């Protein structure tokens, strides 16, 4: 996908701060330091727009990035970082649950998992939560460049087994270093947007009739 325009729009913590233009939204969830910001920077081909940090837990709001004026990537706070206070963890949890529970423009959650490691308890909880509330999810196994290509299938199989991965869900292998998976992920996002547009058009036609 050719990136024509990208803008950081807002760091939101409350629903009244969310954008109101109803563009489709794709949220990125994952543990602290799993590489969500690096993934966003690779997706939009902009170095440093999504701020990366060696210090986990830096993202503490919902960061909105508008791409080509047609879609938002929404970066969630990372979860599972021990040095974040209990109060902050509760605040993050409430903020994310509020967003996921009633955000109509949300089209899919990209659950980011480090391919080198088994999913954390928080990863499994997030996946189970998304399935329970029937929120579309794509598991993105990132940092693929950190292990030999020959080990990819074994690690992906392990991650899917630990998550209890559902066959109808999507998976993308990704590397922020090499760009592996970038076009596949954009193709998926565009596919979901087109499917949603078609469903909305059908609903409108039925309403008119």
From TrEMBL:
Gene3D superfamilies: P-loop containing nucleotide triphosphate hydrolases. One of its GO terms (molecular function) is metal ion binding. Its cofactor is Mg(2+). It comes from the Bacteria. The keyword Zinc does not apply. GO terms for biological process: division septum assembly. Transmembrane segments: none annotated. Residues 22-195 form the EngB-type G domain. GO terms for cellular component: cytosol. The keyword Cell division applies. Keywords: Cell cycle, Cell division, GTP-binding, Magnesium, Metal-binding, Nucleotide-binding, Septation. Necessary for normal cell division and for the maintenance of normal septation. Belongs to the TRAFAC class TrmE-Era-EngA-EngB-Septin-like GTPase superfamily. EngB GTPase family. This is Probable GTP-binding protein EngB. It comes from Paenibacillus rhizovicinus.
